[in-house]
Amino acid sequence: MRALVSIIIIIVCIITPSLCKTCTDLLRELANAQMEFVYCNTRHALPVQDERLCNGCKVRFDEMSTSYSDLMKSCSKIYTDADRLNILTTTQSMLQSLWDRAYCEECFKNNNSGNFTSLYDSFSTCLAEHPDSKCTNCLLEYINMNNFYKNLDKESNGKMCFDMQDIMNKTRVLWSKDLKCCKREVKMSTFLTTVVVVAVLPILLLYSGAIVLTKRREANHGLLNEQEPELDAPSTSQLITAAILSTPTVPPAVVDSKFNKISNLLATRDSDLSSDDEPILHPKQSKQLLGDSPK
Q: Residues 9, 57: contact at Cβ < 8 Å?
């Protein structure tokens, strides 16, 4: 019976080795897996040839995830919330976050990374086979690669795998800046049209503003004179005549009183003069000399 139990335990340990390991062993395996994953990420900070972060560290990431899962199944009560920093789960979360920020899982969906790598290999081979006419002979390969990347970027809502993103960015720099294959020709007709529009637009705006202002002034003038703003507006002489006619007439009684005051002043002044002076004029005579006031 004991032999049978021992055999069963051995078989279980062979099938699921984590069940036969102590929590200390599982913790040690997780620490080693995390160390290998960190080393792999650091080593792929800059791509070595064509090996990049996601594809180069996929195996290490899977090993780390498996070790963490085995430890949590058997020893979660011991290592979870065991200290204030919660070191075990915090460290695993940081490493998982690094993988997620690179969107590495997008590389392995629908073999996206493999298809993109094939297009990149075709483009690289074309560049090597046509060193003197890269822009002409390798244009189709570049367009296919670029279109595949743009469609994939649209489908994933910008969550592009870091490996493909890094390859595409470097390829675009190579194509446009280093090889100078992106030559954007400016059409002379477009340039001249732009210059004409920029030159004529201020004149049109000024002319339109002058017309609007003139129309507004004519409309205001017509409202004040209770007539439409036409060219037959009253002349200057007509306006002067109307102003003279509208001047109020001084009553005769007021004029008589003014002449009486003048006569009295003259009589007072003449009393002091010699006999050779002119005789004093009566009010009626002064009125006759000065003439009647306008009615």
A: no
User: H helices within the chain, ranges in order?
Assistant: 2-15, 23-43, 53-56, 58-79, 87-101, 112-129, 134-137, 139-155, 162-173, 188-224, 236-245, 252-270, 283-290
Structure tokens at 127: 């560049």
Bridge-partner residues for 51, per DSSP? 48
Nearest to 70 by CA among 44, 88, 51: 88
Q: Which amino acid is at 101?
A: R
pLDDT in tens, the chain (295 residues): 555 444 454 454 545 555 568 899 999 999 999 999 999 999 887 765 567 889 999 999 999 999 999 999 989 888 887 778 888 899 999 999 999 999 999 999 999 999 999 999 999 999 999 999 999 999 999 999 999 999 999 999 999 999 999 999 999 999 999 999 986 655 567 767 887 888 877 887 776 777 777 777 777 666 555 544 444 555 555 555 655 555 556 566 765 676 677 777 666 655 554 444 444 445 444 444 444 444 4
Cα torsion 31, 36, 38, 39 to 10°: value is: 140
State the pTM of this model: 0.56
Alpha carbon distance 23, 75 (integer Å): 6
Contacts 24+ apart (CB under 8 A), 136-145: 139/181, 142/171, 142/175, 142/181, 144/119, 145/116, 145/119, 145/120, 145/171
Contact 165, 150 (CB under 8 A): no
Axis crossing angle, helix 112-129 with helix 162-173, rounded to the nearest 10: 20
